[in-house]
Amino acid sequence: MTPKKTKGTRKGYTTGACSAAAARAATLGLLTGKVPAQIESLLPNGQRVMFVVHEGSVTECYAHAVIIKDAGDDPDCTHGAHLTADVRLITDCVDKVQLKGGEGVGTITMRGLGLDVGGPAINPVPRKNIEANIREVASELLQAQSLEVTISVPGGQDMAKKTLNDRLGIIDGISILGTTGIVHPYSTAAFRASVVQGVEVAANQGLHAVVLTTGGRTEKFTMRELADLDSACFVQMGDFLGPALDSAQQVGIQQIIIGGMVGKLTKIAQGEVITHARRNPVNTQLLADIAAQVGADASACAEIAVGETARFAGERMDELGLATAFYKALCTRVVTTLEGRYPGIFSYRILMCDFEGRKLVDYGE
């Protein structure tokens, strides 16, 4: 019998990072007449990483490059995807980098994702990263001309069937994602163990509180807001709230501070202790009930109930001037849910930020 492969913690690269590397390689090919065999690309987190270019071609005003995604030890449906960039010269304007979505990149059909309806499902951070890489190598060219870059993913439509994209109103392909450029193996047993270890380290330092964050953006946000806390208090739990709280209970941690955005906090409010997107979807009826509780009218509540994202609910409540009350009520529901699971064990504080890392509420301060 072949032994089961042990899961590890090797990091990979996001679809956004691979797209940016492909765009950089194609742009360099356009400038030099040859697409390089490998390319050093700038990640959103400031690191520079070398990528192998698996395919490249150049004509007088057009270049093509492909990067194959390596997701590390947390392979998902996009592992092995061919992130493809086609870059062409535009001569009727200057200093513009126009980004388009090609085959296999989804199209946005619903509000609530922070992207234009009808546009490609390329998230804001990858958009900026793609442009930053192009501008680094083509600054001189852009003084006289512009560039159009089309990102495509052959087979992306089939990959998307293994995601929740259709529920989110993203059709005909995958999303180009990533906030740091790096894929952390959140779903592995090794990462789960590291979360537990982080809580144990905090307790071993004599600390009585841990700050559990859902990712890099929320960790940076909470570190800014809680600058007086020891760095050992901060544990990036990813999707593993349950193991983190179980460990905190075992080692005698008294205060739980959760840093999150509206989607993950909704998952917690509805009783999820493993909050991965591929598990149960966001309960939008719960969000509609909370909206009604803070004064939203019936039509707005109905829109939220049939919506597909917690972000849409927040945006809708912001339009009504009820966002702060809505977010505080959601935090109340989070605490009530956690108290039901861990009665009398912890005190709670919740710091919620938006998708740009700006504070929305500080509940229980």
| Unreliably modeled segments | 1-6
User: What's the number of extended β-strand segments?
Assistant: 16
Order of adjacent strands in the largest pleated sheet: 4-5-6-9-7
| Average pLDDT, all residues | 91
- What's the N-to-C terminus distance? 55 Å
Proportion of β residues? 15-25%
In angstroms, what is the radius of gyration? 22 Å
The overall number of domains is 2
Largest sheet: 5 strands, mixed
Give the overall shape. globular
Instruction: Please write the string of helix (H) and strand (E) elements.
Output: EHEEEEEEEHEHEEHEHEHEHHHHHEE
Estimated structural class? alpha/beta
Describe, in plain words, how this protein is organized in 3D.
- The protein has 365 residues and is an alpha/beta fold.
- It contains eleven helices and 16 strands.
- A five-stranded mixed beta sheet has the order 4-5-6-9-7. A five-stranded mixed beta sheet has the order 13-12-14-15-16, with helices on both faces.
- Helix 1 runs parallel beside helix 2 (124-142).
- The relative contact order is 0.11.
Could you give the topology of this structure?
Blueprint: E1 12-13, H1 15-32, E2 38-42, E3 48-52, E4 55-58, E5 62-68, E6 82-90, E7 97-101, E8 107-108, H2 124-142, E9 146-152, H3 156-160, E10 170-171, E11 182-183, H4 189-204, E12 209-213, H5 216-225, E13 234-236, H6 241-251, E14 255-260, H7 262-269, H8 284-293, H9 298-306, H10 310-319, H11 323-341, E15 347-353, E16 359-363
Helix pairs in contact: 1-2, 4-6, 7-11, 8-9, 10-11
Task: Describe this structure in a few short sentences.
Helix content is 37%, strand content 21%. With 365 residues, it is of the alpha/beta class.
